[in-house]
Amino acid sequence: MPTSAQMQAYWMPFTANRDYKQAPRIVASAKGMYYYDEQGRAILDGTAGLWCVPAGHSHPKIVEAVQQAIATLDYAPAFQMGHPAAFEFAEQLIEYSGHKFGQVFYTNSGSEAVDTAMKMVLAYHRARGEAQRTRFIGRERAYHGVGFGGMSVGGLPANRKQFGPLLQGVDYLRHTALPENRFSKGLPQHGAELADDLERLIQLHDVSTIAAVIVEPVSGSAGVILPPAGYLQRLRQLCDQHGILLIFDEVITGFGRLTTPFASDYFGVTPDLMTTAKGLTNGVVPMGAVFSHPKIYQTLADSPAGIEFFHGYTYSGHPLACAAGLATLRVFKEEGILHHAAGMAAYWETALHSLKGLPHVADIRNLGLIGAIELETVPGKPGARAMAVYKKAFAEGVLIRTTGDIIALSPPLILDKSHIDVLFAKLHDILAHPE
Ligand code: PLP
């Protein structure tokens, strides 16, 4: 356990620091489906860390690849210079996307991927002589990371209110969490027409000002909000009709969460830009990536000679991250991770929805290997009820995640039925006996 001086020194992200430091939760190691604390107690991981460990913890093939990489090439400059794994990984990612995209741009996180995609959009329109297209359309209750771009198009009030006016000229679609869809299994049926909000915003701002729409195909951090059937298709159609670029933020849905490589595969809708991170390296080394349609790269590459896009990071395409990413793709293929996940999805859905009817359960939602249990909020104490469940579950050996009063579940994709049984038996037990 850290000393109190150590505890004081670490300003923890997205954490109630004072509350946490009174009763810290520490994990010391991890393997497969489990974390272990300093005493060796196993904690079943119901959230794949922070949605980022699809192939399970400390996968030996990924560990070995990173060990070899660090012993060979510790770092390579990312500007005007390259190393083989960065090119190899980019090609493999394009292949993994089914060649729906043409290029990959590396970042170090999902937040950086979002800000990078937004800058690509602006540079693209400018290069085409439409520099007045600067307005982004985000969505209420969206999470696009914590950069100023991502915060500005994001729709979570708590993430915005401390930081002033943010990027100007952004507008928002309504979110798609509709009461009539409560307890839907899989895709909700009501609300595809909410995509027509885009028409309204086009009327309001004039289409000539609108650069791009950014949405999470399935939102995660806002509490698992699903797109109604037909909604994403409608958004794509409207964007095409009006020359607006469409960005899918696939930071949580990428790399198998819906049992397909990307959510765009699941929905059969291809965006112009796709942001990814997390599962890209199985969470082992920080990395993000923006996948781009060739027309965007080509438009910028056709601009006068010189650097085409004044953007990049010291650690773009870091050798360790590329090694981890290449090994992750190999593991996905060799171990049939998506196939396995697809085989678990129906069992997962049934187990999750068996919690319906327990005290304070207001809604249950699922898609692929994602689940959400929304609890009634204690009046005047938002988030308190779910946080109590979270603490109790951790004490009893299960890691879940909460956002407000929503429990969000996103296990490693390697889980089997016995893990699903343990996870939901524990949640059943806790929810059936509220404090
Ligand atoms: N976009 C989405 C949809 C996310 O869920 C997240 C993180 O959860 C991010 C962006 C930000 O990613 P990062 O925390 O790697 O910056």
UniProtKB/TrEMBL annotation:
Pfam families: Aminotran_3
Transmembrane segments: none
Signal sequence region: none
Entry keyword set: Aminotransferase, Pyridoxal phosphate, Transferase
The UniProt record lists the keyword Membrane: no
Any GO molecular function: transaminase activity
Family annotation (PANTHER family): ADENOSYLMETHIONINE-8-AMINO-7-OXONONANOATE AMINOTRANSFERASE (PTHR42684), BETA-ALANINE--PYRUVATE AMINOTRANSFERASE (PTHR42684:SF1)
Family statement drawn from the similarity comment of this UniProt entry: Belongs to the class-III pyridoxal-phosphate-dependent aminotransferase family.
UniProt-recorded name of the protein: Aspartate aminotransferase family protein
